[in-house]
Amino acid sequence: MVGDIAAQARAFCRWVGELAPNEIPIADIEEGSGDQDRRAEKWFDIVDRKLGLSTQKIERRSWLYSGENRLTTQFTRVCASGRPIWVAAYRAEEPTLDHILWQSTGGEQTKSGEPIGIHQIAWPDCGRNCDTNLYHGTLKKLAAATARDDLPYPKNEVLKVIRKGVAAELRTELDGLGVTSAQGAEAAVHAQQALAGLTQQVADLTTYLKQHLPDPPGMEHAGTR
Fold it and tell me: How far apart are CA 97 and CA 176, in angstroms?
């Protein structure tokens, strides 16, 4: 990413249009000499603002991708800001730089056939010649790392919609009865309670009759013989 970073950021936003759920912009900056913090921050400022991420916490905004050496020498301010970092380092040891993803190989090999990096995997329909990245967590946690409270329906808005729909349904009259679902449910609860009380009354009455009424003619008590 070289040249006019502002123009590139605006063109990127026009191309994206708007973000889908769990979609996050990532600045891939692998070229340029000297300190690159200002260029990256300019890109983030434009993209985050135009795509509605400026009000999000820093860890919910655009990511930065680059090689380990470049990140630790040319993006020190961005790396220290708390913004998610995706680091490429093709070796066996994981970088100590704080990051969310580690690209541990690009699938390449040396001339002698030795893998460059670690975790080379024969991916279905791709083989080994592709990038492999390591994330310390579940797929659900990774998705949560890109989740935002504004798109398209945050959890609290979903709950509001559900509550509103349930309330409307309960207020709707049942066909031809002039009774709402809520009223019907309340009547059913009362009926169940009434039946439970009636059942207990019948049981009590049966016990009372056995104790106080004489036995029918011809019935003998046990133990009279």
Answer: 69
| Cβ neighbours around 23 below 10 Å, total | 12
| Euclidean distance between CA atoms 180 and 43, whole angstroms | 56
CA dist 205 → 194, 201, 216 (Å): 16, 6, 18
Mean pLDDT, the chain, whole residue set? 83
Instruction: Work out the number of other CB atoms within 10 angstroms of the CB of residue 179.
Output: 13
Domain 5-150 fold is TIM Barrel (3.20.20)
First vs last Cα of the chain: how many Å apart?
109
Q: Write the DSSP symbol of residue 133.
A: E
The domain spans of the chain are 5-150, 156-212
pLDDT digits (tens, 9 = 90+) for 72-130: 999 999 999 999 999 999 999 999 999 999 999 999 999 998 999 999 888 888 888 89
Pick from 87, 85, 89: nearest CA to 116:
89
Quick one: which of 157, 126, 142 has its CA closest to 84? 142
Distances (CA, A) of 195 to 48, 190, 198, 207, 209: 63, 9, 5, 18, 21
Q: What is the pTM of this model?
A: 0.65
3-state secondary structure of 33: coil
d(CA 63, CA 61): 7
**Both tokens assigned to 21:** 């759920």
For residues 132 and 122, what is the distance between their CA atoms, to the nearest angstrom? 10
CA-wise closest residue to 97 among 106, 105, 107, 87: 87
